[in-house]
């Protein structure tokens, strides 16, 4: 038989999370050339790397980040996050450039005359961001509307203490999706197709945002993945389709200009697989890249979408629970890889897409990398 040598897949450290922050999720943005991290065991602190390689805080979310994804919305790159408590969050690429503002107010939800360094500006402000101040701004207040032309914003809580002028205000760059029509139990990652952003709930409903928006959602904009009576696992972009995962199925939807039912998605009827994705904790074990989607099935096997077919890669199920799976871009050896982290000690593995071989990393690292 022919014998060949495949160089063992290797990875280099790009960023080191804070000491003791186990179980974190790290995401690399190829368009921004930045690494983002979600650290903490209860509520995640969000950070990003700088050009110099150091890390800066972007604020925090409630719950644990289960998925990162990336999309360009209205010309701005957004890093989008779903949380273990079903909420949605995002970081716009220009949100961290400015964090200090001044504004006027008077016992109202509206703040006016917003300035940056004395110049009227709402640069870097996004709906859903949290504002803090030494006085007048109620702790935890978030922006619900921005009037860029008038340099004003509406908060979800009225200011206190009477009139104030040029109050120093600090903003958290990360923003929460606060639209009441956003699903309260979002699961899986965000997926974008033709200007719409999609996310699934655990009932298999696929919600879409308004066109070119991440903050505006409509309760009628819903498609349903219900060909099988199973539980929703999440959606992912697959070529020019949205692949909708359930616990026992994968359905495919294409973009249609006919939004008769409120959603631009239409089911591709002939393309349904009865193999579903595994859910470990709050994380759906799938990842897109290299022109396809890889995922861990409910039977603990690794699968690859091959057209509308879920093609099994592993010859037998994993003997220990896979707690993380993601498609990596390229390693230092220029390998196309699928990262697999097992619950067993030293259970890290790579699946080499080109050679079809598995290698073991021997790592006990509890920081999971995706992107």
Describe the fold and architecture.
By secondary structure, the protein is mostly beta strands. The chain contains no helices and 33 strands. The strands form 7 sheets. Strands 5, 6, 7, 8, 9, 10, 11, 12, 13 and 14 form a 10-stranded antiparallel beta sheet that branches. A 5-stranded mixed beta sheet has the order 4-3-2-1-33, with no helix packed on it. Strands 15-16-17-18 form a 4-stranded antiparallel beta sheet, with no helix packed on it. The chain is globular, with a radius of gyration of 22 Å. The model has no long low-confidence stretch (mean pLDDT 87).
List the main descriptive attributes of the protein structure presented here.
33 strands; 371 residues; single chain; 5-stranded mixed β-sheet; 10-stranded antiparallel β-sheet; mainly beta
Low-confidence stretches: none
Q: Specify the biggest β-sheet.
A: 10 strands, antiparallel
Number of helices: 0
Structural category is mainly beta
What Rg do the Cα atoms give? 22 Å
Work out the helicity level: under 10%
User: Got a strand count?
Assistant: 33
**What is the strand content?**
over 45%
Distance between the termini: 37 Å
Overall outline: globular
Mean pLDDT, as a whole number?
Answer: 87
């Amino acid at each position: 038989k022919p014998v060949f040598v495949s160089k063992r897949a290797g990875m280099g450290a790009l960023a080191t999370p804070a000491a003791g922050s186990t179980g974190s999720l790290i995401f690399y943005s190829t368009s921004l050339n930045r690494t983002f991290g979600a650290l903490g065991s209860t509520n995640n602190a969000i950070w990003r790397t700088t050009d110099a390689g150091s890390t800066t805080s972007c604020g925090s979310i409630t719950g644990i980040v289960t998925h990162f994804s990336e999309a360009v919305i209205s010309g701005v790159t957004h890093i989008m996050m779903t949380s273990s408590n079903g909420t949605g969050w995002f970081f716009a690429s220009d949100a961290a450039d400015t964090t200090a503002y001044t504004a006027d107010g008077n016992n109202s939800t509206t703040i006016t005359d917003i300035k940056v360094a004395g110049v009227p500006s709402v640069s870097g402000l996004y709906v859903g961001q949290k504002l803090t101040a030494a006085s007048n701004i109620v702790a935890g207040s978030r922006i619900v509307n921005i009037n860029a032309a008038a340099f004003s914003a509406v908060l979800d809580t009225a200011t206190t203490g009477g009139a104030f002028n040029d109050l120093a205000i600090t903003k958290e760059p990360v923003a929460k999706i606060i639209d009441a029509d956003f699903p309260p139990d979002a699961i899986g990652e965000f997926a974008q197709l033709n200007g719409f952003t999609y996310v699934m709930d655990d009932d298999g409903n696929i919600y879409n945002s308004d066109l070119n928006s991440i903050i505006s959602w409509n309760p009628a904009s819903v498609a349903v993945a219900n060909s099988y009576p199973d539980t929703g696992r999440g959606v992912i972009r697959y070529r020019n389709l949205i692949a909708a995962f359930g616990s026992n199925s994968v359905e495919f939807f294409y973009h249609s200009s006919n939004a008769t039912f409120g959603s631009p998605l239409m089911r591709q009827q002939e393309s349904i697989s009865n193999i579903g994705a595994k859910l470990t904790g709050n994380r759906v074990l799938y990842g897109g890249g290299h022109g396809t989607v890889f995922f861990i099935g409910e039977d603990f096997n690794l699968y690859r979408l091959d057209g509308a077919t879920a093609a099994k890669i592993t010859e037998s199920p994993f003997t220990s629970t896979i707690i993380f799976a993601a498609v990596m871009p390229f390693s230092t050896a220029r390998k196309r890889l699928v990262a697999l982290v097992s619950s067993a000690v030293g259970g890290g593995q790579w699946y080499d897409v080109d050679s079809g071989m598995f290698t073991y990393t021997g790592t006990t690292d509890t920081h999971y990398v995706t992107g």
